[in-house]
Give the backbone structure.
Amino acid sequence: MRFVTIAPPDFDVDLDLRYATPDNLTGRPIFARPLCLLHPDAAVALSRSIRLAAAQGLRLRVFDGYRPPAAQWALWNALPDPTFIADPRIGSNHGRGVAIDLTLALPDGTVLDMGTGFDDMRPISYHADISISVAPQRNRALLLGIMAAAGWQHNPFEWWHYQLPGASAYPLVE
């Protein structure tokens, strides 16, 4: 299986690959270099998402795509909570290359307020949380609409996480 590299100019996205930096829930880089890969089917769906966001005058900012098993273990070891982190013994849809973590940004790169940051592992990050103000609720709904229209499914516990339907049918990739 050959994954697709998600990067400009082929994909008009902003990359903010947090797991290649210490700015993530582990507090240290868990990827050796910033590289975003996706299964070809997910790359096609991402292209649709990019076009739909652009039609709204917005851009996608990508935090994570394919995640190898060692990275999944690092996340699990930092937070062994299956609500937010897939148990690496079972496998993550990121480990299949068919999940993506992302947000919306303005053309100048300003990220839309989603009420929490990426990887905020609290119930306030649930898509349907209404304890946040109205503007972030609308921004989450806008992201959900763009991604759903492009063929993605959302994770109800993480506003930033989307995956292809039937993700578990794709094989885990070392």
Observations:
- The beta strands are 4-5, 14-15, 37-38, 59-64, 99-105, 153-155, 158-163.
- The first strand starts at residue 4 and ends at 5.
- The chain has three helices and seven strands.
- The CA atoms of residues 37 and 169 lie 18 Å apart.
